[in-house]
Amino acid sequence: MKDHFRDLAIFGGNPAFADQLFVGRPNIGDRQAFLARVNDILDRRWLTNNGAYVQELERKLEEYLGVKHCIAMCNATIALEITIRALGMSGEVIVPSFTFIATPHSLQWQQITPVFCDIDPATHSLDPTRVESLITPRTTGIIGVHLWGKPCAIEQLEAIAQRRNLRLLFDAAHAFGCSHDNRMIGGFGDAEVFSFHATKFFNTFEGGAVTTNDDELAARIRLMKNFGFAGYDNVIYIGTNGKMSEVSAAMGLTSLEHLDDLIALNRRNHEAYGRGLAGLLGVRLVPYDGNNRYNYQYVVLEIDSESAGVDRDLLLQILHAENVMARRYFYPGCHQMEPYRSHFPHAGLLLPETEGLVQRVMSLPTGSAVTEEDISRISSIIRLVLMNGSEMTEALLRRGDAA
Ligand SMILES: *Cc1c(COP(=O)(O)O)cnc(C)c1O
């Protein structure tokens, strides 16, 4: 075994990091500003139900996103469920399988069948050229996902939706603060849904929002997220409880004050990874290029095991031993999870790109908890592993502890 292998924790060295570095460690804004807002909430004893902070957050988000209506919610999953229902989707809806499980679940939860469509391996998003062949007489809509905060094929999907008379919803859970053609994500399709979960770029502990320029749709969604109440004692619609609490809105308003700093920090981190991994064979850092705005929240690598000489999962195992808690994403694909796996056991036959991608993708820690020095160290580990890929794989196989 080469001497410098012994520097790695998996070969008996000390882990590179004393504490684990996580993907999606929450960004936290100014603590004093947040606590001052919480004190104010407690003083006024208005904790939820369209309080002053939720209203202020909604107005500020409408302004920031350049959209007519923003409806704050308790999380993005409920926001998706409500919006799907308010749009009158039924029967079948076309979605990618390469997404977080909440996207198909929000359909299946209300007996709508998610029809999985393959992705374009260049963008990781829904391949619009494959959408049309999946449309049947039961199809009522398409849900595109702006994966990694990169806009999916918005124009092509809009054209198909218009031509085939389908509703178009975007799962923008990753895409807060991102733009497309000089317009902020939030105003495309019939509606868009953001997640403000703790692990997302912009968080309200738990939370989410629906944005739309459609007045009627917005009114329907507002009713549905509050049990259908149109006023005291007056329920005019079936509804559920999708309300955001005041303390969540206070968190959102506090983070909003630091948004540009957070984007700059994420961008610096992403560029540091770009420098650290430059020229490495078999690794592609998914780029944020073009003229769009991004939140740079996702540092996504594609590991081509053949040219890298090492398997994605083995690299993951080595990084974990070093306390770098990199993650596979969205492994093994929604179509391989229940209930979809049982409903459509052969779905994979139509999803060759998705099935390939879930074997290659890995995401690395970033955000305010990760420094540029950390990144340079993480990059060195990856470099060491890839430069000695086949030897390292063999050494671990011999020891019998390769995954
Ligand atoms: C996080 C996420 C969701 C769900 O968001 P919650 O706020 O946690 O309910 C939905 N879709 C995608 C693509 C996500 O990443």
Number of strands: 17
What is the general shape? globular
Helix content: 25-40%
Contiguous helical run count: 15
Low-confidence stretches: none
CATH level-four homologous superfamily name of the largest domain = Type I PLP-dependent aspartate aminotransferase-like (Major domain)
CATH topology of the largest domain: Aspartate Aminotransferase, domain 2
How far apart are the first and last residues' alpha carbons, in Å? 19 Å
CATH class of the largest domain: Alpha Beta
Q: What structural class results from the helix and strand content?
A: alpha/beta
User: What about the largest sheet?
Assistant: 7 strands, mixed
Can you tell me the CATH architecture of the largest domain? 3-Layer(aba) Sandwich
* Associated small molecules: pyridoxal-5'-phosphate
Strand content: 15-25%
What would the average pLDDT be, to the nearest integer? 95
Trace the largest sheet across and list its strands.
2-10-9-6-5-3-4
Tell me the radius of gyration: 22 Å
Strand and helix layout:
Elements: E1 21-22, H1 31-44, H2 52-65, E2 69-73, H3 76-86, E3 92-96, H4 102-108, E4 113-117, H5 128-131, E5 139-145, H6 154-163, E6 167-171, E7 179-180, E8 183-184, E9 191-195, E10 208-212, H7 215-224, E11 229-231, E12 234-235, H8 246-256, H9 259-276, E13 283-285, E14 299-303, H10 305-308, H11 312-321, E15 324-325, E16 327-328, H12 340-343, H13 352-360, E17 361-364, H14 372-387, H15 389-399
Parallel strand pairs: 1-15, 3-4, 3-5, 5-6, 6-9
Antiparallel strand pairs: 2-10, 7-8, 9-10, 11-12, 13-14, 14-17, 16-17
Helix pairs in contact: 1-8, 2-8, 3-4, 9-14
Pyridoxal-5'-phosphate (PLP) binds next to helix 3 and helix 4.
